[in-house]
Records
---
Amino acid sequence: MVDGAMATLRSSMASPTKPTVKKGSRHASSMESIVLFGPPGAGKGTQAQRIMDSTGLPQVSTGDMLRAAVSAGTNTGIAAKKYMDAGKLVPDEIIIALIEDRILEEDAVNGVMFDGFPRTIPQAEALSNITKVSHVIAIEVPDDRIVDRICGRFTCGKCSSVYHDTFNPTQTDGVCDKCDSTELKRRADDNADTVMSRLGAYHEQTSPLALWYESKGIFHRIDGDRAIDEITKDILLSLN
Ligand code: ADP
Ligand code: ADP
Ligand code: ZN
């Protein structure tokens, strides 16, 4: 995108009215996004929060966006809820529309860090028309570790920090380390039954994307079955 067009885009986004840019049409050459890829519970959200400052890119989690839509009772939330409760993927059209809107927000002007998107080939194809992807970071964790990770997960309702009952507990029981909030919560779909269908969906619909991105030479495999700090170090090395 030429400078003039970029300036027009920025000013249209800064105005309180809706952006006039056509959805999905922003494909600026300066905009390079990162994809955090991996099964549910691999540690994508945990790592996204730790590398956000280094990358300077905002975390965009489709799971978080869908949960916000469900809480707000929007049409998207109503349509998505039954799939989420069953541990199935939400239809591509819904996800792609969410991303097309999100990418037009001002903080996304230099790209974003996708967490949990894309999860299907059609989503990846749509993404290639929305933003350039510079790195796909695949956090690899064996299936037999996933159930324990998911079933012990809890997050801070105020600052979204991610914890685990055993592997990453808070320093003081019931209090967020980062913001001191006591509003710690668990997700309804973080139970052993739903995890099995989420893992099934990952293997059937999402893991084929690895080959797709490998053929583009931007796929970086990271051993995610290690200490959180070691994984962060490796991700930062892959990004440099
Ligand atoms: P994802 O975003 O990929 O679903 P999360 O970042 O939410 O995964 O992590 C899932 C759970 O596993 C959380 O409870 C988190 O604290 C824990 N976790 C994350 N990374 C590790 C790790 N390297 N070792 C052990 N537990 C981890
Ligand atoms: P996790 O990383 O633990 O699987 P997420 O928060 O990423 O959890 O996703 C929760 C649920 O939201 C998924 O099980 C699925 O129903 C839905 N979801 C999130 N992202 C996508 C996506 N890109 N495509 C389809 N469904 C999605
Ligand atoms: Zn907090």
---
Amino acid sequence: MIFESLAEKLQKTLGKLKGKGKLSEKDVNNAMREVKLALLEADVNFKVVKKFINNVKERAVGHEVMESLTPGQQVIKIVNEELTKLMGETQSKIEFASSPPTIIMLCGLQGAGKTTTSGKLAGLFKKNGKTPLLVACDIYRPAAIKQLQVVGSSIGIPVFSMGDKQNPVNIAKAAIEYGKKNGNDVIIIDTAGRLHIDEDLMNELENIKDEVKPHEILLVVDAMTGQDAVTVAETFDNRLGIDGVILTKLDGDARGGAALSIRAVTQKPIKFVCMGEKLEQIEPFHPDRMASRILGMGDVLSLIEKAQASLDAKKAIELEKKLRNQQFTFEDFLEQLQQMKNLGPLDQILEMIPGMGSKQLKNLKVDEKELVKIEAIIQSMTKEERQNPSIIDGSRRKRIAKGSGTSIQDVNRLLKQFKETKKMIKKMGEMEKAMKKGKFKI
Ligand code: GDP
């Protein structure tokens, strides 16, 4: 889970306040001491923590909390609002140029995820109707050009490259000419990184900046490096003047220090976050939604957006019809499983659901392997069996178990679950009909 250890501690501390009918100043102070510790342990910049705690305390011991009916919840609301403020309040979008192409320069240290993120961004823009061009300006890291080409071809986006013998400034210039001729409205330049910040790197980036005048300079930083990421952001900003940050590897960041400090320290917004190596694992950054996720309040809006982007609306309507008419088969079930996979890892989806705090998620132990098993069982069924499971007798069960590498018990369990689900859907359908006729009232 993203920011797992921070989320767990904050939720535990604030959970203690929730049930209290009245809060004393001492209660608030005690809770804030624990919140402070949790933030420091999460590697949040200490100045940021100090200011944050003061802001919360100032508001929490005032009248708005002490005299309200649910003081604990008021404190949680304040923490949520202050966390949101810390991360920049509102979403900070990419400013597309009024006369295209919009030129975006990606920079950062080696290994931060620049090349991967260039592809992710291009893919996201393409989904939104743009025609991006990727530009390979990292001529030093072995295989960086090839990597970008592989990424580009996997999502159908052209990659401009002139090999590794040309000066990156010339490559960038030529790429823009090429992009203009070919109608590319967004040009994403993947620049070189180094293991550490050095003069040569900064000079090269400055030269590219001066020559191509990018509309946006985005710094890619690895969230798992915590305060180092904040220092990198400060340094790049001082030299280059960045417009925003893309935080990568949030999927492996249990602490959240970088995400919570970067904006407050550099005054530059986080524009996107990446949560995995796959090309679709990028999201626009919404401070309010992230604060809610950290506090276990879910993120329904992102979930809906993800679903809209990944699921097929027409198929969803068809499915609903089938469910109503009792025609739901294992084939539909299989399709559902596959669509669900498009949404991303199950634990990342679940934590967007309100009430799915870190504790609940741990208890739930989402077992993706179980889903793989179910998929294998359905795939081992014949078409006829999928449509009419009642024909699956003992010998067929044996064959399916063997074919899917599972046990007969696994097959039996799935068949039983499926039957019960169908029964339940039928009951719900009958209830709905009765309600419509006015025969059934709640
Ligand atoms: P570059 O040197 O900055 O261009 O970095 P790369 O794009 O080559 O990425 C370095 C490594 O980080 C690769 O193995 C990527 O697959 C991985 N990576 C990039 N973004 C993410 C992310 O959001 N989550 C995870 N888990 N890995 C990532």
